[in-house]
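Minutes, project check-in
Item: structure for the 250-residue chain
Input as provided by the requester:
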Amino acid sequence: MRPLVALSTDIDPKGGYYRQARVAIYANYLAVLERAGLTPVLITPAHSEESIRTLVDACAGLVLSGGDDIDPSRYGQDPIPELGTVNPPRDEAECRTLNAAVERDIPVLGICRGHQLINVFFGGTLCQDIEVAMAGNAASHQQTSPWGSHHHDASIEPGSRLADAIGRDRLEINSFHHQAIQELAPNLDVTARADDGLIEAVESRDHHWVVGVQWHPERHEARAEDTDPNIRLFNAFAEVVREGALAAAS
């Protein structure tokens, strides 16, 4: 039986045909989770708090997807002009979803915005724009090449869950973001950095398996070889999800 995993989605307030709110998620998130032997269950900002908890309780893991900027009021900052689009209903829904997941200590994988949300949820902050925060000294983290291509390298912390999952200490990654972690949450450890020092991955020391990655491991990996490090990351996530699902069923 394929374990259920919660997958967060976006909501566009006026994105539908009739200019009405609709939820959305790139299909490749579902494809790569299906490839890993998991069944994604969509959790949306349109769900009630009760429904979110009910859905998370039925799942054995959680993936927090990428998307818009997080409202800086959630980490005690005022917005700057370079802040992108924010989506407070999504912030609220994903914080509720993550809270329900960590209460049960089920595996969590945060991707891009999801990685940033993990840090904010646990008490960290974000730089609202990398170029502003690093005074133009950051390597470009907003690539213009195709979304399935790699852009720069990251160094992986030996002995981390990420290192164990991908089996290497250096990784080529894509880079589609203008925000990043600034102050690290107290219970998180940095497990990957870009060569300019920007935090590319974190994990919780207080939970069984909570990992956030700044890049998008799902963008071409649904069709990648089994040896691809990002496929290995999804497979590692799927393995701990399966272990938890079997333990809960026994």
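Outcome recorded: The CA atoms of residues 126 and 221 lie 27 Å apart.
No further action items on this chain.
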